[in-house]
């Protein structure tokens, strides 16, 4: 019963983190559009390209800030930190999408490169940095203590089931 409650709690935390990430990207997207509105539909292609490039850079900066914030709050709890990280990641995807539609080749490439460097850097910081190698198990086995006993019991039950099915 406890494991089912733990599983449902874990699923709820994942759903909440994803929803928080979506709300963060919506907040940033609407905020950018509110304070830096689109040009008139009558504007020429050059104005639209400049708008897309500038919007992409603004979104990239916002995504970076949110991703860094997720690293800062990671010690307070994984649910909010993961939600913020997803929000930054989704905003980064939004920035790349807008940047791809900008017509200028070099500035567009610079935005994509910066997004790649930031994403890899934050991913490394969050998932790789500071990880310690797993200590070698005591006693020469591959599992330690209680886990080894449980595995032996499961193997014995599977062997008995296999014998019963063959007979």
Number of domains: 1
Quick one: how many beta strands? Answer: 0
- Rg over CA atoms, rounded to whole Å, is 24 Å
| Main structural class | mainly alpha
Number of helices: 5
The coarse silhouette is elongated
Low-confidence stretches: none
Largest sheet: none
Overview of this protein structure:
The chain is mostly helical and 167 residues long. It has one domain. 78% of the residues lie in helices and 0% in strands. The longest helix is centred in the N-terminal third of the chain and has 34 residues, at 2-35. The chain is elongated.
List keywords for this structure.
5 helices; mainly alpha; 167 residues; elongated
Concise structural overview:
The protein is mainly α and about 170 residues long.
Helix-strand layout with pairing:
Blueprint: H1 2-35, H2 45-72, H3 78-101, H4 105-127, H5 146-166
